[in-house]
């Protein structure tokens, strides 16, 4: 995270979140500053630091550091949620169509579903809680994920596109062969004939587009190590009292 963005978040939290407003304790000693609290939250998110790893350096105990993470995540969601966590509009979808057609050559493409290769033993907290029953595979996640919920009930914006002279109501996501046969999921071709030039070229373009997105998510996971780690999450019986659960679930 660059410094200007980080300082902007610190200023916003200092002005709008009571938890980050510096006060005094019972003996009149100044409390922990908003800058230190936000620094510790960022270190947990970026480096997968356990809550008490910087106790001696930043003078913050385990519970306080976990509280910092929860309030920091909630504050960022409040600050940027309206812009980045809203449902896509028709204009957003049209921009995605234009970008992917120019970049990958696919008309009507929205994105890729199978793009992160999560290790389910260390999956994000929200998914691990939601999909704790049964097999935690990509298909189960897809069937309960909010990504396609609006499409299932036909509430998503209908942004038609034309391919080979045929008009389609919705765009589609690239996937691999494990996913169900849905109109909005476009799979690759597993075994094109050795002389079928068109199918071979389609398979290569399909897999190249998915690989671009896998690389992008790979960079994201490298920068924010907490996205792929669950080694210090609390056990199920303690999760109800976990102060970071609500923030992680919302993320």
Automatic annotation (TrEMBL):
Superkingdom of this protein's organism: Eukaryota
InterPro entries: Harbinger_derived_prot (IPR006912)
Pfam families per the UniProt record, alphabetical: Plant_tran
PANTHER family per the UniProt record, alphabetical: HARBINGER TRANSPOSASE-DERIVED PROTEIN-RELATED, OS12G0169200 PROTEIN
Protein name, per record: WAT1-related protein isoform X1
Organism, as annotated: Tanacetum coccineum
